[in-house]
Design brief:
This protein has 6 helices and 35 strands. By secondary structure, it is mostly beta strands. Strands 22, 25, 27, 29, 30, 31 and 33 form a 7-stranded mixed sheet that branches. It has a 6-stranded mixed sheet with strand order 12-11-14-19-16-17, with no helix packed on it. Bound molecules: CU-O-CU linkage (C2O) and copper (II) ion (2 copies). The site of CU-O-CU linkage has 10 residues, from β7 and β34.
């Protein structure tokens, strides 16, 4: 279990998560500006204890652990991360959700040359937004993410929200064989053209989900990140009322989730504030109810028997400070539309794509099972593909995404955060900014962003099988 709890007692009545950052905060800002944080991450095969069976699973790991080390950065402070490739294939690292220079975005062939075996690449950026992000490869994505390459990236607020504890659950889904190894068949046609590779083992922070011991009356900030290839999740906290304070790293109006379920599709992050209002000595289940008829207990909140930390929940505000996102100007926005097509319909037929692309076995051996506006960009993308659309720098883009398929798709855009305007014509409340927007079958989403960052940027489904099989495109900002 690779957890990430480090606490420092503040002089106020709260505990803040601070770790090493506390020391940094004491320095005058002139000193701080000069210092670039230097980190190294080694990518290599390794072993992990994913289940309670005691059996080791052969994985690929960042710094030898699954998930990789949690990177804690400071907002507006530069970092330099040297990635050493110890695999015997090319890799890259993509800093999912971070608004950074295009050359640091980690897409091989599009934004950088791939990192060859035995070679390094130095990523340098200054995170503009505080929040919960993550990192993963963008080369041979299905295999590399499927073998465990993923880690959390936390950018700390200058003034953290007042809580007693901060926790992180990085969720991963694995399809393991009976002897605890990663099952073969990554990229098979059924997964590619249907729901993607949903597995049979879910881990929290790389291990079997153990109960979380909590104290009555405490307030916890829980950062949730779904780093699965394909598994969607809808988490319910029995007897508790989590309040969403950020989505995909971006603060929103604090609100309780619709129907009490936190819906987390692959690549999505949600930060919640949880007041532990349960009874001492009791256990409350945390269940995942996304798939009809397949609900399971993920883990539990186990109250210790100590006296409550406080009688009433804190009344301290749980609003997070907002990030410096440029505001879209809808009055002068340029409209673009993305239509998602393809996938298996029933009767074993692919909708549209197969015939359109003139292929014998769609979805097979890296073929296309999906398309965006009639075009299928497969694999990890490449530099040769013409952008779907081009935006002049500074333009507000009003983007409509229509899902014409019978499947769910978490649509992810690199380099930007999208202001989500409406879903199926109904305005979206709570001022949500997202880099990954989950679309139900036949959904239409309208969103907007300011194209303030030049470069070629990916837009793709984060069900990794779908991405590899054509549900991916590129747009350009000049
Ligand atoms: Cu998590 Cu192309 O991204
Ligand atoms: Cu991304
Ligand atoms: Cu998809």
């Amino acid at each position: 279990m690779n957890s990430d709890f480090s606490f420092v007692v503040s002089r106020r009545r709260f505990l803040y998560v601070a770790g090493a950052a506390a020391a940094v905060a004491m320095q005058p800002s002139s000193l701080r500006a000069a210092a670039v944080e230097d980190r190294r991450i080694a990518v290599a095969p390794g072993q992990a204890l994913l289940t309670s069976s005691g059996q080791q699973t052969a994985v690929w790991a960042y710094d030898g652990t699954v998930p990789g080390p949690t990177l804690r950065l400071r907002q507006h402070e530069p970092v330099r991360i040297t990635v050493e490739n110890g695999l015997d294939e090319d890799t890259t690292v993509h800093w999912h959700g971070i608004r950074l220079p295009n050359t640091m975005d980690g897409v091989p062939g599009l934004t950088q040359p791939p990192i060859r075996p035995g070679e390094n690449f130095v990523y340098e950026f200054t995170p503009p937004d505080a929040g919960t992000f993550w990192y993963h490869p963008h080369a041979d994505s299905l295999v590399q993410l499927g073998r465990g390459l993923a880690g959390a990236l936390i950018v700390e607020e200058r003034e953290p929200v007042a809580v007693d504890r901060e926790l992180l659950w990085l969720l991963q889904d694995w399809r393991l064989t009976k002897d605890g190894q990663i099952a073969p068949g990554l990229g098979n046609m059924m997964d590619a053209a249907m729901s993607g590779r949903v597995g049979n083992v879910v881990t929290i922070n790389g291990g079997p989900p153990a109960d979380l011991t909590v104290k009555a009356g405490e307030r916890v900030r829980l950062r949730l990140a779904n780093a699965s290839l394909a598994r969607m999740m809808a988490l319910r906290f029995d007897g508790h009322r989590p309040v969403i304070v950020a989505i995909d790293g971006q603060p929103c109006d604090p609100h309780e989730p619709e129907g009490g379920r936190l819906v987390l599709a692959p690549a999505m992050r949600i930060d919640v504030v949880l007041d532990m209002q349960g009874d001492r000595g009791k256990r409350y289940a945390v269940t995942d109810e996304f798939y009809d008829g397949l609900a399971y207990t993920l883990t539990g909140l186990a109250y210790d028997t100590a006296a409550p930390l406080r009688e009433h929940p804190l009344d301290a505000p749980i609003h997070l400070p907002s990030n410096p996102l440029p505001s879209p100007d809808l009055a002068i926005a340029e409209r673009q539309e993305i239509i998602l097509q393809g996938g298996m319909m029933g009767g074993g037929k692919l909708a549209g794509v197969g015939g359109m692309m003139g292929m014998g076995m769609p979805g097979m051996n890296g073929g296309a099972a999906w398309a965006i506006n009639g075009m299928s960009m497969t694999g990890d993308g490449h530099s040769g593909m013409a952008p779907q659309f081009t935006l002049k720098r500074g333009t507000t883009c009003h983007l409509t995404m229509r899902n014409e398929t019978a499947w769910w798709h978490p649509m992810h855009v690199h380099g930007f955060s999208l202001s989500v305007l409406s879903r199926n014509g109904v305005p979206v409340p709570h001022r949500q900014w997202q880099d990954t927007v989950l679309m139900a079958p036949k959904d239409t989403i309208e969103c907007a962003f300011v194209a303030d960052n030049p470069g070629d940027w990916m837009l793709h489904c984060h069900v990794t099988d779908h991405q590899m099989a054509g549900l991916m495109t590129v747009f350009r900002v000049t």
